[in-house]
Amino acid sequence: MRADHRGVLLARRVFSPGFFSVTFQAPRLARDVSPGQFVMLEIAGRLRPYLRRAYSVADADPAAGEVEFLVKTIGPGTATLESLAEGSEASLLGPLGNGFSLAGLGRGARVAIVAGGIGAAPFPLLLRAMRAAGVAGDLYLGGRNAAELDFRARFEGLVDGETVLSTDDGSLGEKGFITGAFARRAAAAPSPYARLYACGPMPMFAALARVVEPARIPAEFSTEAAMGCGFGACLGCVIPGRDKPFVISCVEGPILPPQKIDWGRI
Amino acid sequence: METRLGPLHLKNPVVTASGTFGYGLEFTEFVDLSTIGALCTKGLSLAPHAGNVPPRICETPAGMLNAIGLQNVGVKSFLEEKLPRLRELGATVIANVWGDIEEDYVAVVGALEDAEGLAAIELNISCPNVERGGMLFGNSPAATASLVARVRAATKRTLVVKLSPNAPDLVESARAARDSGADILSLVNTFVGMAIDPVTARPRLSFGTGGLSGPAIKPLAVRMVFQVARALPDVPLMGIGGISDLSDVLEFLAAGASAVQIGTANFRDPGVSGRLVDELEAYCRDRDTTVRSLVGRAQRAPTGGEVPGGDAGAEG
User: Fold this and answer.
1) d(CA A74, CA A71)
2) CA A29 – CA A45 distance, rounded (Å)
3) DSSP label at A257?
4) Residue B80 CA, distance from chain mean position
5) Looking at chain A, which terminus has fewer C-beta neighbours within 10 angstroms, N or C?
6) pLDDT, tens digit, for every residue of B63-101?
7) Cβ(A204)–Cβ(A116) under 8 Å?
8) Which residues of A touch B56 (CB under 8 A)?
9) E-assigned strands of chain B?
10) pTM score of the predicted model
11) How close are the terminal C-alpha atoms of chain A, in Å?
């Protein structure tokens, strides 16, 4: 059930400048959240940032009552979180959104996970759920340069498969976009992948859609749109839809198959 | 806590503002809808409306800009799918209505006329984010008068008219709405604003401009409520603009509003409306006072000078 949870900041782990994770004590949320769901986070009493910010839950430990977010500092909201003192409180409205689905994947199935930069945020929890379900997966992780991928340390021991890295400048892994690395492997007939999970910027999704739609690989994209509320009230986070004008990202998503999105209007 | 606004009797003066509370049903985990004074629905049109292309919102200091463009399910779907559930939940519902032309408003109001469980109609003549209709009716007293008169003739229901702060003379617009049959005025809707990406130099909203809301507009809205209350002391008002906490509620009541609408605060704090009811009730109990006696206190207090802004004192 959705609620406004009080969370206490327990720890921050910095991977590289501007890339960090924060762990909050929030027992009910840790118990209720599913992979791919998000919260709207607010640090009380601030007029700037005024609106809450959406963060995918990166990991949850129901036994310890902890939830973790993987964050890149990009604006005033993330900057606030970067400097929040340990022991401080935040309100965590959630869990929100639909979450990833493992339905239809039997033990031994193999999937691909493609993440553009900090788009990797929701995947630790998904990887745990995959392991519990006996689903293997290759992790494709792309970034601008090696320093922006230092947070890959957070994925150590979580991936039951290969980890493929790429950087725009070639400073780590393959040189080029991660979508290219994925396409080269996924395009084999038959495709090695029963499903694609992806999170990153819209152009990355558009490139992935061009790969998986012809290859008929089912895909789940964790879409990101600026959200005013996170629970379907403001209608600020819509994405152009294929079978209706707009999809409301926060409640109909954020996890959407590419077939629901009108890529021509993105 | 009982609040009377002309023919409209509410259990308390805390109402949620149109466009910030969905159809109420999005909030049921955070607010017991039967406890708030009323909720104003998302603006309803005759046919479902898709709204503007994204980006539709952006944050600004102490507030936000939006250009949603009145996306809504249409009046038929509202009546079939939303209103019955709201009735079950014991909500007091004010249906917000908009259209491109006068006939659209009349048609939507007609469709609502026999619906069970509606407390009032609120006419949106002040949305800045559509190409036609909306604010165009609110920015000219003559257009306001014509529209309100036509809708007045088409419905027996209590009629609220939601005013635009972008009108050249808000008091004139208020007077036009009152003289044409509005029972209650709600004010204010959002202020037309704009935000530009400093790097790309492109507007942050696809519509170009948007409506500014949130605490940033509160002093502007308080001044407008004060002014209209002074000019038209017999017209019940609902004050709107950046209300986030109890002191904001008290401020708008003091300015002359008989009720308040909570808007953008619902986005960041979905339980705020229910909590404000409790806090206001506790405030009145602790001070052995009533909501009614809190209304218009600032009108009776010495202002220490002229109230700026034209003919504010003309009828006051």
Assistant:
1) 9
2) 22
3) -
4) 24
5) N
6) 999 999 999 999 999 999 999 999 999 999 999 999 999
7) yes
8) 235-238
9) 3-5, 8-10, 14-16, 38-40, 57-60, 63-66, 93-97, 118-124, 159-162, 184-187, 191-193, 210-213, 237-240, 259-262
10) 0.93
11) 32
**Angle ∠(A167,A170,A175) on CA atoms, nearest 5:** 70
Cis before residue A95, ω within 30 degrees of 0? yes
Q: CB distance A234–B270 less than 8 Å?
A: no
DSSP code per residue over B259-301: EEEE-THHHH-TTHHHHHHHHHHHHHHHTT--HHHHTTHHHHS
Which residues in chain B touch residue A93, judged by CB atoms under 8 angstroms apart?
Answer: 270
- Asked whether B251 and B231 are in contact (CB, 8 A), the reply is no
Point out the residue among B60, B68, B270 whose CB comes nearest to the CB of A235: B68
Strand, helix or coil for residue B152: helix
Give the minimum alpha-carbon distance from B276 to chain A in angstroms, rounded to a whole number.
16
Positions of B annotated as catalytic residues are: 127
* d(C-alpha B83, C-alpha B77), whole Å: 9
ipTM, two decimals, is 0.91
* B184 burial level (CB within 10 Å; 0-12, 13-18, 19+): buried
Per the structure block, which two tokens stand in for B3?
A: 């609040």
The answer to whether A155 touches A74, Cβ cutoff 8 Å, is: no
- pLDDT tens digits, one per residue of A4-33: 999 999 999 999 999 999 999 999 999 999
pLDDT per residue as tens digits for the range B38-58 = 999 999 999 999 999 999 999
CA B92 from chain centre, in angstroms, equals 15
